[in-house]
Amino acid sequence: MTAALTDCLFCIEGHMPAGRDESMGELFEVCPVCRPVCGLCDGLAVYPANYNTPAELAVDLLPLRLAAVLCPGCSGVIALISL
Ligand SMILES: [Zn+2]
Ligand SMILES: [Zn+2]
């Protein structure tokens, strides 16, 4: 257990589990309790836990003929489109 600055019950460092996606694996979303909700996507964006950068995600999605649409406000994934 790390020395957390927050005692939020819903998240870990501002991120909370948001289920799983067939293509992207484990997903997180921004905790609306601790973090300001993104004004552009209204907090809808999700963050794949397995990827550090959007480029890594893009490389894995390409063989599936999918591409992630990222929110310009928070860089989360707001949609997957078929190529
Ligand atoms: Zn939280
Ligand atoms: Zn956003």
N-to-C SSE series? Answer: EEEHEE
* Molecular shape: globular
Kindly, what is the distance between the CA atoms of the first and last residues, rounded to a whole number of angstroms?
Answer: 42 Å
Number of domains: 1
Percent helix among the residues? under 10%
Which structural category do the helix and sheet elements fall into? Answer: mainly beta
Average pLDDT taken over every residue: 90
Give the spatial strand order of the biggest sheet.
Answer: 1-2-3
Low-confidence stretches: none
How do the helices and strands line up, and which of them pair or pack?
Elements: E1 15-21, E2 25-30, E3 46-48, H1 54-61, E4 66-70, E5 77-82
Antiparallel strand pairs: 1-2, 2-3, 4-5
The structure holds zinc ion (2 copies).
The site of one zinc ion (ZN) has 8 residues, from loops.
Folded structure, characterized:
- The protein has one helix at residues 54-61, and strands at residues 15-21, 25-30, 46-48, 66-70, 77-82.
- 10% of the residues lie in helices and 33% in strands.
- The protein has one domain (15-82).
- It has a three-stranded antiparallel beta sheet with strand order 1-2-3, with no helix packed on it. It has a two-stranded antiparallel sheet with strand order 4-5.
- The protein is mostly beta strands.
- The chain binds zinc ion (2 copies).
- One zinc ion binds next to loops.
- One zinc ion binds at residues 38, 40-41, 45, 71, 73-74, 76.
